[in-house]
Design brief:
The complex is a heterodimer. By secondary structure, chain A is mainly α. Chain A has five helices and no strands. Classes of the chains: A mainly alpha, B alpha/beta. At the A-B interface, helix 1, helix 2 and helix 3 of A face helix 1 of B.
């Protein structure tokens, strides 16, 4: 896979083995469930509900591992810590915005991935 | 062991992608039946379905993993709960394991392997726990009143009444009765029907342990306490902690040891030989003897203070010969048991055999009856056990003689007959032994031939 791609399917493939259907289902579930969480995160930002932002980041963190979106990993961990300490961390708005951008590209790539099946 | 039978696994996970992954991994084993839950409340509401294993996400929307774990453990401490967490925090992991979590797994690239490993171990654990519970259940059923001790006679009903009074308290019970009357059985029934039934029942036969070893056997010893004490050893009292200890043949204990036992009972604490640590005792004491303890006290063989300490509720087990038709009830019971254990069936106890049993005095009591019945079941050639199949041991047979309610003349004839057989019809010898005239014997022989 080329370096400028946001996603990396190798871990997911190792988990799914020969079960291509299961791989499709995992991607599909991720595509359906992650955008609402990101929306939630944005609205919590305007409410300054740091704890909720942290919880949301914590919740989605493992599924990003399956999709191999490694560029999002550090961002999510930082956002998660904001909630852990229940305070506004530096650049949190910026970080959520970055995460959003990464996700938009990743979602597109994942939709392509679904079609190639 | 049924390790691979169908296993009900509950998965608690609020992230749909991760839930999909866990469901996939766990369903790879076709024996696994899976149910999934997205919140703490949902899983707690479903506990009545008794899952075999639960995997629990640490961060749930409504409750913390710790709270959910506590509630699951309160409901049933035996369900293994595998925590699956997004973060690696040793403090939290240790805390959860202390609360009874079976394992703590991090959501990372090794989750699948670790989960499979933990699940397999948890399943083995569950099947062992189930097996132990089944065995415990079987034991307590075995010793339920009516299953272990059978009978309708007045003396045995009095015993039942006393036993019922004894089971709900911690009072010491002293069981007396001739050999073979079932003293250990009564002790076991008392334990397995008491609130202590889930804790150990430890029987100790004082007569079977050499005097010099009794102290370390009962109270334990530390490593190096005496020559030969190469390891620390727990005493029987410690082993019985929370349960009951049964000291059989208590009258055989020597006076020196009696003093030590008295101290332990009075202080309710025990010290291992060679140790300075005092261990508090929570043990119910059951004792038994075939001797008359009061008589032993009179003769100076048993400490009076210990006697009163041990007396508690005295239960005297009647000898079998005083239990009327219990003999037949028990004989039939043993016959059934024997047939069950040996895959036999259809064998009945004939009327003539029953009458013969009722006339016997059973010096060996219930134990003797059991072996008589087992022997008869083996010897019997027909579907009914006959008089001839019932064979009494000759150990104390002369005592039996008086229980047959014969006339004096009949007794005389039987005695003469017995010795004539024994001494090959040597009239001289028999007359000498019985101190009677030879003519008496000749007269008997003449009558017999007529």
């Amino acid at each position: 896979m080329s370096n400028n791609k946001m996603i990396d399917m190798s871990y997911l493939i190792s988990v799914c083995g020969d079960d291509a259907d299961f791989k499709q289902e995992m991607i599909d579930t991720f595509l359906r469930n992650t955008p609402p969480v990101l929306e939630d995160m944005k609205s919590s930002l305007s409410e300054k509900d740091w704890k909720k932002i942290g919880d949301l980041a914590h919740k989605i963190k493992p599924s990003f591992t399956f999709m191999g979106i490694s560029k999002a990993k550090d961002l999510i961990v930082d956002i998660e810590h904001s909630g852990r300490n229940n305070t506004e961390i530096e650049d949190i708005r910026d970080k959520i915005e970055q995460l959003n951008k990464i996700c938009i590209q990743a979602f597109n790539e994942l939709k392509e991935e679904l079609k190639t099946h | 062991m049924p390790v691979d039978e169908s296993v009900k696994i509950f998965i608690v996970e609020d992230d749909p992608t991760y839930l999909k992954f866990l469901t996939h991994v766990i369903s790879l084993n076709p024996d696994h039946q899976i149910k999934t839950f997205a919140s703490g409340k949902d899983i707690l509401d479903a506990l009545y379905e008794h899952p075999s294993v639960i995997t629990l996400d640490y961060s749930l929307p409504d409750k913390s993993g710790e709270e959910v774990l506590k509630e699951i453990k309160e409901f049933d401490p035996n369900i293994p709960v595998i925590i699956i967490s997004g973060q690696e925090e040793i403090g939290i992991a240790v805390q959860l394991l202390k609360l009874g979590a079976y394992d703590y797994i991090i959501k990372d690239e090794e989750t699948q392997e670790r989960l499979n490993y933990a699940l397999n171990n948890a399943k083995k654990n569950v099947s062992l726990v189930n097996e132990i519970n089944t065995l415990k259940q079987e034991i307590s059923e075995k010793y339920e009143f009516g299953n272990s001790i059978t009978g309708n006679s007045i003396p045995i009903k009095k015993v039942f009444e006393l036993m019922k009074k004894a089971i709900n308290t911690n009072i010491t019970v002293s069981i007396t009765g001739e050999t073979g009357t079932g003293k250990e059985l009564v002790a076991k029934a008392l334990h397995y029907n008491s609130p202590r039934k889930k804790k150990p029942f430890i029987p100790v036969n004082i007569a079977a342990i050499p005097n010099e070893l009794i102290e370390s056997e009962l109270f334990g010893h530390e490593k190096g306490a005496f020559t030969g004490a190469i390891t620390r050893r727990l005493g029987k009292f410690e082993e019985a902690d929370g349960g009951s200890i049964f000291l059989d043949e208590i009258a055989e204990m020597d006076l020196n040891m009696q003093a030590k036992l008295l101290r332990v009972i009075q202080e309710r604490e025990v010290t291992r030989i060679g140790s300075n640590t005092i261990l508090p005792l929570d043990v119910r004491l059951l004792v038994a003897t075939h001797k008359d303890l009061a008589e032993e006290v009179k003769n100076g063989n048993f400490r009076e203070d210990l006697y009163y300490r041990l007396l508690g509720i005295p239960i005297h087990l009647p000898p079998l010969r005083d239990r009327d038709t219990d003999i037949i009830i028990l004989a039939k019971h043993f016959l059934n048991e024997f047939q069950k254990d040996n895959n036999l069936h259809g064998l009945k106890l004939g009327r003539s055999a029953q009458e013969k049993l009722l006339k016997y005095n059973f010096p060996g009591n219930v134990r003797e009856l059991k072996s008589i019945i087992e022997l008869a079941a083996v010897m019997s050639n027909s579907e009914e056990i006959q008089e001839d199949d019932i064979k009494f041991s000759s150990l104390k047979n002369e005592e039996n003689f008086t229980y047959q309610e014969l006339s004096l003349k009949e007794y005389n004839d039987r005695i003469i007959d017995h010795f004539l057989t024994k001494y090959d019809d040597n009239v001289m010898k028999v007359a000498e032994i019985l101190d009677i005239g030879k003519s008496t014997i000749y007269r008997y022989l003449k009558e017999k031939s007529e």
